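Assess the record.
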Amino acid sequence: MVHHTANPDLSGSHAEAELARLYGDILEREAELTDRRINDALLKELVRQFVGAERQLKDLNDLKNRFLGMAAHDLRSPLTSIIGMSRMLTAAELELDDETKSKFLTAIHRASTQMLELINDLLDVAAIESGHFEMTFAEDDLAALLNERIELLAPTAEQKGIELVAEVNPGTTCSFDRERLSQVIDNLISNAVKFSPTGAKVTISSLAASDSAGFAVADQGPGIPEDERDRLFGTFQKLSTQPTAGEKSTGLGLAIVKKIVDAHGGRIVLDSEVGKGTTFTALLPRRGA
């Protein structure tokens, strides 16, 4: 009897089918691995985005809490003054002479202005932090804007016995948002006046180069201690140096200044010497330079 051993059918059709099946299995496994790698990458990206969103939400919540805390603290004092003095002005039983009434009205106006300044700063910081701070750029006359703001702020400086000195060269131009840069100029000049003693000078100079234009505001105030300069442009920062005539500082003005200058693609430079004064320089790029 002859025994025949069964051999696998390696005829062409069967082999091709087997190879096709194995190839299909390989492709399926590869697809599964690819899907798994893609899913792992998507998962990591989703986790990264979630962590970023959570951090941003926490930062916004912290900012909101600081807003509320600061608003409650800094608005309370002027509001209390307004309520108290207005009550005295309207009290029928009090007969106030014209001079006293005038003093009360002046104080109410000062307290109201202080409140408005704080509210405007808070709104600006909120807009900046939320990304809704709109800017419109146009080629404009920086020298003319500087002279306009100096003329507007000079009476307030004179009330404190401070002279605003303009060293502005005509024809200094660059591209900027007129409203926002006015805010920068006003903040820096007002800040210089606020921290300068009676009889001092605040000098505003225009600057121009082939690739940039800007201005400097120099005061004769107490200067800024070196260990406080790193946090000078942060929000809600109040330094050890105090205004010389009891003026209020929101701790927001310089943060807003830096954000606006940054949005112009420019930079703000600080030069300060304790006991001698401080100079803030804002430099903006000239488009196409």
User: Anything to note?
Assistant: Strands lie at 138-141, 163-167, 173-176, 201-208, 212-218, 267-273, 277-285. Residues 14-133 form a domain with the Helix Hairpins fold (CATH 1.10.287.130).
